[in-house]
Amino acid sequence: MYGTEAQDIYTACKEGDESYVRQWLARAENDVNRGDGHGFTPLHWATRYGRTRIVEMLCSRAAKVNASNMGGDAPLHIAVSFGQQEILYKLIAQKANVNATNEHGNTPLHYACFWCYDQIAIDLVSAGGLVSMANKYGETPLHRAKNTLKQKLSEKAIKLGQNLDIIPFKEDAKKKKRANLDLYCRQPEIDFRTITMGELIGSGSVGEIYKGSWGRYQVCIKKLRNQNLSTQQLKQFNEEVPKLRLFTHLNILPVIGMCSHPPNIAVISEYIPLGSLHTVLHPKEGGNPLDNDTVIRIAQDIARGMAFLHAHEPAVHGYYLSSNNVMLEDDMTARLSLPSVHLPFVRTSVFSQPSYLSPEAARARLDRDDQKKADMWSFAVLFWEMVTGLIPHDGVPPMLVGIKIGKDGLRPEHPETMSPSNKRFLDICWNRDPLKRPSFERIIPILEKMAG
Length: 452
Description:
Elements: H1 5-15, H2 18-25, H3 42-48, H4 52-60, H5 75-81, H6 85-93, H7 108-114, H8 118-126, H9 141-144, H10 147-159, H11 173-177, E1 195-203, E2 207-214, E3 217-224, H12 231-240, E4 252-253, E5 255-259, E6 266-270, H13 277-281, H14 292-311, E7 326-328, E8 334-337, H15 359-363, H16 368-388, H17 398-408, H18 420-429, H19 440-450
Parallel strand pairs: 4-8
Antiparallel strand pairs: 1-2, 2-3, 3-6, 5-6, 7-8
Helix pairs in contact: 1-3, 2-4, 3-4, 3-5, 4-6, 5-6, 5-7, 7-8, 8-10, 14-16, 14-19, 16-18
């Protein structure tokens, strides 16, 4: 047996206890990215001790490969420092940033050169590691490499098209702002007095959304408009919101916690600077539509997230797929926003976002299995929106859109410029017969083929 529950997962990762890690990951409320007192996540510790299989398990359950500890070291820094070559390849395959810098400005390549791991250094350069990237003290990896390795790395870099001019150290302001929330999300209840409210960034019928800070972290505060909840409603709030703390999937944006005491009843989540998919697709100042590769990649993320939600027990009720309810990270990773879930005691019209409704959902309330089929229709509308860059049924009154969808099966028209493959894919997903629509599990390999 291990010690306290908070330390169990770290000890299991250090000792290679795959059985414990597997059981721990099976509980969706456990945050795979939470850090210990020094900010080391389970992935940091599994990497440090060379637990390859556990690294694979953690990565398959949304472990952040670029999460940094208190010293700014990502798991890739740790893999290089301890010569964990096999794990290094797995982290790179998971899109670890080979040029990530720690608090001293050192990249993994700096470490490989310092510790004389020649093959690892060469592999890092092959993966995009920059030989001329200076740390805070003006030292590049080449400064730290011995003569033979220095020559090999220089030749390799030139062959790959790198410029050997020194790249000055530049503080990553974004990295400072985006610290992990792992250390402080053990319990669902958050004392509102520990939150600093910032600017209002959104408003709707359910409540107002603020950017704010919680300790040294940036958060999003969704403050309910109705603060006078009945005893029964408050009980539902306390029961339902913790179910949205699902930390084990890369494409899910979980609820971090909640404040359950009026006049500050609120739902707390991670602040995502880029914002929603809707904001990216339809910027106020205008912009360019997403390229097809990016559309397919985002669609894959959404499909994976929806497949996870559909399979999850207990069921997550009240998540409705739309471009407003999908958030985008800076690297364009899509995450389904669980703070957007409709709580059972909050009355909202089905016509609040009617453009994404399936015909059967516009006509009646659905059970869980029928809702899964309706979600596929919503996904198809969202896919159309990404491909075209247009707002579905723009300019038509929402009530009329809802009526036409329910009565006539209204759906957006294929533009002439849409590719045949995208047209075929849409026609499969928004089939008028719900029973003929595929599951999200089935369309994931289709999207993978479309991605080439």
